[in-house]
Amino acid sequence: MLTMLALLAGALLALAAAAPLLARSAAGSRALQAGTAGAGLLMLAGGVGGLIGAPATLTLPFGPPWGPARLALDPLSAWFLLPVGVATLSAGLFALGGVHGPEAPRRLAPWPVFLAGMLVTLLAADGFTLLLGFEAMSLASWALVAHDHAQAENRRAARLYLGFAGMGGLALALALGLSGGAGGALDFAALRAAPPEGLRAAAILALVLAGAGSKAGLAPLHVWLPLAHPAAPSHVSAVMSGAMTKVALYVVARFVFDLMGPAQPVWMGAPLIALGAASAVIGALRANLEEDGKTLLACSTIENVGLIAIGLGLALAFRGADLPALAAVAAAAALLHALNHAAFKSLLFLAAGEVLHGAGSRRLDRLGGLIHRMPVTAWAALVAVGAAAALPPLSGFASEWLLLQALLAAWRVGDLAFQIGAAAATALAALATALAAAAMVRFWGLVFLGRPRTPRAAGAEETGGAARAALLVPAALTIAFGLLPGPLLDLAEPALRLIAGAPAPRSGLLLVGAAEGGARYWPILVALLLAGATALVLWQVRRRAPAGVARGPAWDCGFIAPPSHLPFGDPATQPSAAGFGQPLRRMLGTSLLAAREQVTMPAPGDPRAARIEAGFHDPALAALEGPLPRWRDAVAAQAERLRDLSIRQCLGLSFGAVVLMLALLAWMEAR
Amino acid sequence: MAVLWGILAQLAHIALLLAAAPLLTGVVRWLKSRMMGRRGPHPLQPMRDLLKLLRKRPVLAENASAISRAAPYLAAGAALAAAALVPSFARGMAFAPLADLILVAGLLALGRVAMALAGMDVGTPFGGLGAAREMSFAALAEPALIVAALTLAILAGTTNLDAIGAAFRDGGLGLRVSLGLALVALLAVAVAENARIPVDNPATHLELTMVHEAMILEASGRHLALWEFAAMLRLLLWLMLLSAIFLPFGQAAAGAAPHYWPLGLLAFAAKLGGLALALAAFESAIAKMRVFRVPEFLGAALLLGLLGAVLLFVSTRLT
Fold this sequence. Notes:
The structure holds two protein chains of two kinds. By secondary structure, chain A is mainly alpha-helical. Chain A has helices at residues 2-22, 26-52, 75-97, 105-108, 110-123, 127-145, 152-178, 188-193, 198-216, 225-231, 234-259, 269-289, 293-320, 324-359, 370-373, 375-388, 395-408, 416-448, 455-458, 466-483, 485-500, 523-544, 577-580, 582-592, 619-625, 627-640, 647-670, and strands at 56-59, 70-73, 512-513, 520-521, 550-552, 596-600, 611-615. In chain A, 56% of the residues are buried. Helix content of chain B is 70%, strand content 1%. Chain B contains eleven helices and one strand. In chain B, helix 7 packs antiparallel against helix 9 (221-246). The N and C termini of chain B lie far apart (43 Å). Classes of the chains: A mainly alpha, B mainly alpha.
């Protein structure tokens, strides 16, 4: 299985190399996209195979100068192959349906490299290969974010993303260097043999959270994500949100659960829980304020990554407190949510891409009423919206139910400060879940319901074929994952054993259970109960009520009839994106996101229109854009002085640097 | 045999729900009218209204989609499914293992989302306004509910409603400040979720103050009947939930034969009647608050719930 996956990574790289040739014709582009969709299928097969079969390792015949590159497929890698596979399969199908002619090579070539980078990161069994895969993933996705560089906002997003990617790679390299095993060996077996303790462990955790956490979108290093994810083509956005964030979380999990050894104290989980809760609330709140559909979805990704991080942090804390059964519940919630989010978020991004293609806009205020013109997209997106809003019996509810059960049991970790923090995290997670539901209603309602807000939206067209399959596959998976979390957890059993050191929480075909005789969730029975109750209502109503409906004009609250050039009524008499976000902007936005509203009301008798302006600032972005450029300018000004040095001073500088390095080397030899 | 009685009790419970929901709303309205010095409509009036509405053909807006037609059924079905899980006169009904507090919250959220989407379907300003407010208030009500559930889960060890009721009935918990705070938080959430005064006025059609009514402004005929019925079921559900958690007394034992049920039914009717009286008195005594004061109300509930949990941590440490 591992050999197959290694060959798959090679094949993807070969596909990338052939991309300039393939991009010349529509058939070639189609072949490339079909290849990536097939790669998604193979990743899914590899993931399932890795979870069922025994762990495997593979030493490649090439690698860095100091030793061969190593690959391994253990349960943790195998589980994270599943979200990557789901997202890649759907995105590949969507891209296949979107090919209508020759493509720009710069849009096509980085795409397989991106997928191969994620695959190599998941399979890596030594530090160098891990970094190689992670950086390939970062740079290829940067190239895809920057593909449409004619627009200034995309250039800004790509620049910010590149900065964060560079910072993240550096932090990860330092983390690997700090955790180096005996003699500086970087293969994972050597790292496991020398687990860090105390301050070194804290430093590694901080560096991993800065490196991989920023890539996953954990606050406060999330600010690049709502800019970069929407700038890429829609199928790439789907994979960036659905899969790349999961790969970053995999790196976090690999470090904290595996490479840093099993004997970590309880407080190691606290930063993950705190950052996760902050990300969840900030992401969900921003999703209620953003006016661009894809940006809204990217903010919702921050929220979901936060929830997964809470699960991972709880698992770490439970493991440190020697409560393996609860650790398994928390880890199960995190792993399950990673998979569920990959399915429903890919679907949402692909639906947004379909809307962009069919109705020509991503802005919520330029869409509306698309359920009439794009029914398949609308209903498929509704499934994902239900899952993202954590509605039973869809997939999001199952994993968030498990997460809440883990949070409700967090008091069993004896420490009072941890208990209070966990109670606050419970409230924040519930707040984020409810905010996400509001954001999803806002997204789906504004895009698909109501009346068209522009002529372009009124004439929207749906594409069929592979793009339709790309929506239906993740929709079916979202329903299936929601109904069958028990079998999924059985499949995840080896990964949970690796993380928590305990078997999965009690689960079966029908139920998922929290540990120790606690609550149970029976998704299939709940679905049947819901269907039965609805059927009972339907039967009772149909028995008494006359069939059919009459149609009439809507009561538009006393607005005058629209002029004849507005056949669908005045679009301004229905809720706008800013208007729908208004209650939450006032309730939470003013304190958390410095949101403001300004009403300009002309004097009575003045025929000018009244204006309301609303906006917000993410405090993290303000902190980043304030001092950081100033420091950069100060450092640059100092560096400028080097240009005026004489040749003597230049040579002196070089000599001094060499002496300093030799002294450092001598000092390290002596230790 | 016990299994059979469990199934029978569940079926009787569902039949009871269908009949009791309109009656409860009627009783609350009648009590409120009496307290305000009016004669008030007959308690069966909501039932008659529902039957009348069912006989009328609904009028849908020209651009209404399938959402307008499907959402009322889904919302009523979700409310019925959630209410079917909350124990009323007997313990150990057939669905008792499913009866999880978080699942009930999820089913209520399902009904809420269905209603918000139906409100946005036609694209009228009021529908969208009501949907935005409903979802925003829920964003604060839901954490308050979960935090109250945290206190209950710590004390009972689970979020299963039957098990929580059992823990209370056995009296091992005693009187605790934390429970009082959780009760206050749950009451505030119940008031907000049911669109009662002071959060929303169930009797109003005064446009600017309404949340719930704004979303169903376009509904008529059987669709309106379903929305009304779902709201009645939710009110019944919340009163049942409060009595199942905090007053779990007098219920027939799990697996008890039907001749034990009348006593349980009597106790259930007494509890509902008492809660209805308290609700009517509360609503008569206070005024509706401004819409943008509601977040403070729910935020206070959330903080009280958190305080209850923290007190619980501290007190378990002292003993």
